[in-house]
TrEMBL record:
The modification 4-aspartylphosphate is found at residue 55. Its main location: cytoplasm. It is found in: Cytoplasm. The keyword Secreted does not apply. This is Response regulator. It comes from the Bacteria. SMART domains: HTH_ARAC, REC. GO terms for molecular function: DNA-binding transcription factor activity; sequence-specific DNA binding. Signal peptide: none annotated. Keywords: Cytoplasm, DNA-binding, Phosphoprotein, Transcription, Transcription regulation, Two-component regulatory system. The lineage of its organism: Bacteria, Bacillati, Bacillota, Bacilli, Bacillales. GO terms for cellular component: cytoplasm.
Amino acid sequence: MYEILIVDDHTHLVDSMASALPWEAMGIAAVHKAYSGEEALELLHYHAIDLIVTDIQMTGMSGLELASIVKDKWTKIKSVILTGHDEFQYAQEAIRQGICNYLLKPVSNDELESTIRALIGDLQLEGEALVSQQKLADLFRDSLPKLRESLLQELLAGKLPASSRLRDKLKLYELPFDEAAPFLMLCMRIEEDFVGTDVYSASLLEYAVTNIADEIFSPRFEIWHCRDDYGYVVFLIQPKQPSEGDAKEWMEETERLARLVQHQIKRFLRIKVSVVMSHWRAFPLEVPAAYHDLLSLFTDYIGFQTESFFHDMQERNVEEIRPLSELYASPTFMQLLEVEQWDAAAAKMKRVFEELEQRGNRTREHVFEAYVTIMQAFSFYVHKKGKSFHDIYGREAEKMLKLDAGWSIEPLREWSFRSLEQLQTYSGSLSNSLRHDLINRIVRFVNEQVKDVTLQSAADHVHLHPVYVSNLFKNETGDNFSNYVLRVRMDAALRLLKQKETKISWIAQEVGYQKPQYFIKLFKTHYGMTPQEYKNSLP
């Protein structure tokens, strides 16, 4: 769907044209109106306009001047000139300014509709050319390394897509990893100080490291890598022909090649790396667990030692105490509450308690860990809103602020969901109050700054984006911001006109119009008489 802007200093012509054509059936989603070239330019900054229909002669900025500016700043916009002047020089100038069509007044609705439909056809053809299959294919292929890395980062973070969706992505990204085959993971720490190194040089070094690993492993293994949030380079490895050897033989071969990668990086790149290596794990379900195990090896066994190689040969017991991975998986409770994603927060809470129900996670320590983390997120949200727990939870706040390590899973579950619902209820009432307060501040500003007010200045006053202010004003009041400003200015003009000694040119400037003729035209449209006629009618 497209958006069109109609520009004419005859307000009744703009309003008539805006309601005369079947815009939605033509593919036009929004019709914007401007009553001067200056107002048109302001609207162009805040809306994605595709087509402009403008009169050629207007008070102040002409249609040709407007078209010239549009041609320089918004090259994709199609322009149509409407004029009653059929002199050849106007047509020549319109062509030079990049006008797509030049129509003589009076223009029938059928003729205007036919012209606009043709231009929409041109826009569609241009769009199709822009997203042609070849261009998309080239762009996609260029993006493949980044897409592969991003997918592996998601798996490391525990964001496991549905099996069918993962298979589709692996195929699309040309990653021949088999869900039925196990994998090994390598985690590599580059032990160089890159302070002062530019991003380009650091990226080249990382590319060289992964390229060495690819060269060494690729004859017999599939290899897939990414850089994690801690600067480690993580590799996933699967044999290309698993039937050619058993698990032990493949493990020994992988370790031999991993040590060779470590040696070759030092030899050719003159840098030291430490490597930790996992045992065989199930793909993709155990990717997050394998990753966290390797991170633990760095902290628990390697520490600050350099050029280390550690092979995790010990199988993990499923009954051993483990951290609650869902509790800390991104997005965290704190992140979800910050953007008020209540349904997502409730879904995450459900997953946390499902993990707590597992046999190895039902300890009092795990329950207390979950309580502290959830309480921390609630505290962050409440204090960010400038409130205390008593403001939102009342008497129950005292219980919440007593850390109860004796809670079992079920009472904690009940408390967590009930407290989350109370926060959501508070958020809804707060949002309504904040919107009402914002509208009141904007209205006061318009009335106080009637001479110089613009959408931008009103938005600056409340520290928000102009497009948001425009939409908020429309949704909350049912009126356009520009229409409201016009009414305020006309009301102010009416009051000033009652002072008979004042000049109309002075009143025009006082209510925000530099050109008296434009003010007179707006006043007559609004009240059905000129300012002078109104003055003369006063007793």
